[in-house]
Amino acid sequence: MNQTEKAKAFGALHRQGDPVVLYNIWDAGTAKAVADAGAKALATGSWSVAAAHGYADGEKLPMSVLVETAKSITAAVDLPLSVDFEGAYSAEPDGAAANVAKVVEAGAVGINFEDQVVGGGGLYPAERQAARIRAIRAMAEGKGVPFFINARTDLFLAESDLSRHAGLVDEAIERGKAYAAAGGSGFFVPGLIDPALIEKICAASPLPVNIMMRTGAPDVKTLAKLGVGRVSYGPGPYRSMMEKLKQEAAAIYSLL
């Protein structure tokens, strides 16, 4: 498949009630392993890619390294790739679009694009984030790629008190609608794990909803019944792999 065909195929995988499952990767090697395991598409996790290169999350990883990582993955594996691009390394719409263009040129067919002010605290007003999405969409259309913009809201991830999540749902729904109108393709709500709230957002969202697996989250089959269109694993795979590596190394060194 060429890039346009991959982008169309990736978008078609997002079906409400039959979600695409993305077990997040961080380099070409993990991409090949997950592809061999039966994945239909691939997605990086920003935390994982940064950690694999010795950086903290939050756009501390040089953008050039992230773009080169994307290139190495698309060169190694012939599956659609979505890149977790955080805040696109720019607060301004034009800057964000120019940076995402580099991801498109690397062969990716989608991004995660979050509404938190990276390094600054808080979230962008919905109108400001929508303007950034519009700029990215216009850039992608200019390149002729039906690029998948997974518009992420950090409302729930930023609120550690789960009892307050119900009070954030209405704002999340409004943000989702604004992001859809601006050209978003999916709506990502990491941090949300309450089944009733997930179902409410899925019912109201004009875009397929993405849930991130974490402790306490429903399993994939339950999420499908709630209407979710995409399930991802975030930094979980990286943390699991690093823990296994440490355990195996410790077992060896304990014998010396």
Features:
256 residues; 10 helices; 11% strand
Give a verbal description of the structure.
GO terms for molecular function: lyase activity. Keywords: Lyase. This is Isocitrate lyase/phosphoenolpyruvate mutase family protein. InterPro entries: ICL/PEPM, Pyrv/PenolPyrv_kinase-like_dom, Pyrv_kinase-like_dom_sf. With 256 residues, this protein is α/β, with parallel strands linked by helices. The chain is built from ten helices and eight strands. The protein is globular.
Give the SSE order as H and E letters: HEHEHHEHEHEHEHEHEH
What is the global morphology?
globular
- Describe the sheet with the most strands: 8 strands, parallel
Structural class: alpha/beta
Strand order of the largest sheet: 1-8-7-6-5-4-3-2
Would you summarize the structure shown here?
By secondary structure, the chain is α/β, with parallel strands linked by helices. The chain has ten helices and eight strands.
Provide the fold topology:
Blueprint: H1 3-12, E1 20-22, H2 28-36, E2 42-43, H3 46-52, H4 63-76, E3 81-84, H5 93-105, E4 110-114, H6 126-142, E5 148-152, H7 169-182, E6 186-188, H8 195-204, E7 209-212, H9 220-226, E8 230-232, H10 236-253
Parallel strand pairs: 1-8, 2-3, 3-4, 4-5, 5-6, 6-7, 7-8
Helix pairs in contact: 2-4, 5-6, 6-7
